[in-house]
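Input record (one chain):
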Amino acid sequence: MPFIPDWTVQFSITNPYSTEKGTTLLLNVDTGDGWYMVDQSNSGIVIDVRSTKDNVPQADGSILHTRFLTGSEIEFAVQLWQDPNNLACDAQLARMLDNISGALRSMLNAGDNEGRVAWDIHGGSDTRMLDDARLHVYPVFSMSGSIPTVTFKIDSQYPYAQDLTPVRTAISDGQTVTINNAGTAIYYPVFQVNRYNNVTEAAAVGAFLIQNITTGDEFTYNDTLPGAPTIAANHYAEINCFRNTIYRDGTGANLKAGVEQLTSEYITLRPGDNDISIFGCPMDMLWANAYG
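The corresponding structure, as predicted from the sequence alone:
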């Protein structure tokens, strides 16, 4: 896959186990207690396409179905070495197996930001990641050609890799800001409406409109719709465009009743420039370059 061009670079696997151990699981570097080395020939990434196709004759051709990417799966084969010249064995091998088993087991149902697979871009300073990563296939130990090896799979709901550090862009009421997605894949941003520079506004909001002028997508909220609440002063609406959700303060009341369903789209950032605007209040936009 294009977003992991080199399996020899450093990988870091963030997991809930890291909190207690004080470190992430590092691959392809000296950890101070052995080397977890990725076997490139037995590792890889898969992104599947979910689609249907009906070859039904029509006046204007067959039916065109919408296709969806189903997320990412990354398979690792990790060899355990004492140092670059000697295989791990005996007590050290046992410690390394305990560490990798504990780290991966804790990723079975990792929470938000608790599971990430990150890697350095070979020859550069950028770092990318698969976010919201969880264990997909439990680790299996084997002696692959006399080399102690652990194989496992990690999956992510996102069908793209993204920059490790997201960008927070503040957009004032009525302003249009050009966002450049320098990657190769469509990215789904998060909007925090009624916030500006990570500070919640002390004003209530009844209606707002977000636009991606470049793509023509619009997202409209209107508190006059049945069951739609006003966004109260000192609160904000968090719109997760990948999950198609809108909640007060990110975890509070569901605000979906206020979304104009017939005219609204959950906005995406295509590769290249995107002109983003908001009317009705300010907002913070959280986004990153995406690759896939």
